[in-house]
Amino acid sequence: MLDIRAIRAFQAVAEERSFTRAAHRLNVAQPALSRQMRELEAGLDLVLFDRGVRPVALTAAGRVLLEHGQRILAAMVQLHGALDRVRQGERRKFTIGFVGSTMFGLVPDLLRRFRAKAPDVDIDLIEMNTVSQIEALKSGRIDAGLGRLTLEDANVARRVIQHEALMLAVSQHHALAVGEEPVNLAELVGEKLILYPAEPRPSYADQVLSLFHDHALSPVNLLEARELQSALGLVSAEAGVSIIPASVAKLRRDDIVYRPIRQATAVSPIILSWRMNDSSDLLRSLLAVVPGEEG
Which molecular-function annotation in GO is an example for this chain (predicted)? Predict the structure, then answer.
């Protein structure tokens, strides 16, 4: 017998390709999850998993259920939201999760344009990291997310709306504070590099490290900060240097100097994410004001 809980549990096993990892993700005991999947197979009179291989693989029937189950779950999220609005007698609501550093550039203007297209809608903004956004999208807690990481998930569609240049932030007393020429990443290998956020990972911190590694550079003197403002505070205190999105330089501070970076690959994407198969008019209104290409 198909029900929403069974479909959601099946989806977790299919995506994790492991009953153990899926049980951890669902916060249930692994034996209980295995029993639920056996009952699902018995009710459908179909074998959904090839349990004889590692990692666990889907049968042809399992692949069909995964494809259609994703659509069912997306539709149920929208249905519950619509029913909640009717039940509570509220105005329509659209919730967007966002990474803090996306709010210094073009995103605020995009949100103003979205509000203008949907004046009768309450647009709620919740700050959360990109990893949390993916789970919040799938659970229906948010309707769209603005982040900087490309996290592959079959249930989530993405659009890169900007490739934002990165800059170096240094104390006004640092040797690299002098000059207007772009700074070469190689000049930073010997510096104490302040990364943020410290957790969860992967995060923007890993993007910065990948930038160095892509140029065969390995900074070894690392200091992790909890978030952007902490990183800038450490820069001001001359505890190290940090690489930040260029729009953050709008936070003008007399004690910090911002320098461009020479490498053309020193960019960080701003990515809009939403539930795959979400066909709501509000999402269409948002996508209409957002530039970029899906991918």
Answer: DNA binding
Domains identified in the chain, total number = 2
CATH of the domain at 66: 1.10.10.10
Which residues are bridge partners to 267 per DSSP? 165
Euclidean distance between CA atoms 160 and 158, whole angstroms: 7
Of 22, 52, 82, the position where a domain reaches its end is 82
- The range of the structural domain enclosing residue 148 comes to 91-295
* Average pLDDT taken over every residue of the chain: 89
Answer yes or no: do 125 and 251 share one domain: yes
Structure confidence by residue, pLDDT tens digits, 233-261 = 999 999 999 999 999 888 777 899 999 99
Residues 218 and 145: their CA atoms lie apart, in Å, by 32
pTM above 0.90?
A: no
